[in-house]
Design a protein that fits this description.
This protein is mostly helical. The chain contains seven helices and no strands. The N and C termini lie far apart (89 Å).
Amino acid sequence: MGSLVFLAIVIGIIVFLVGIYNRLVNLRNRVRNGFSQIDVQLTRRYDLIPNLVETVKGYMKHERETLEAVIEARNSAMTGLKNVDPTDPSTIKALAAAETTLGGSLGKLFALAESYPDLKANETMIKLQEELATTENKVAFSRQAFNDAVMIYNTACESFPNNFIAGPFGFKTTEFLEIESEVKRSTPEVSFT
């Protein structure tokens, strides 16, 4: 009788530990899936940028440095995206830095484009700006879903008793994808004159 109770306790503990392990696997896969949604949107964004640069090139012949900076930032971000492991914090940080640089370059490009009335009125330019804005919104939604998955996964990895399973089996916390925006950090000016 005592051995049956002991066996039932051991089986119960094993089932409990397997349940924790399977939950951690499920959450890690949700993080990867969340990142794959970001990957789709960022790839679309990267594909739009060369068309944007080609459209702008004809109007902004004297702004070669800005155009080259946009292309260089795009290529750097694409490389970062290809090298991302969503569960590796260092690759997430590298992608976020590349995306921040790309966002700054695109911001400068759009600011310069304001100086060219013919370019602002160009139908292709308007369409590309709309597509980029739509894609940026999709990236933001995908990033939010990814960050939510990361939060749930990290909490599961760090919580007791999961942390006794997470560490030995290689479940490590990961990083949120935070893309800094100059607009987000700047204080808007308000004037009533």
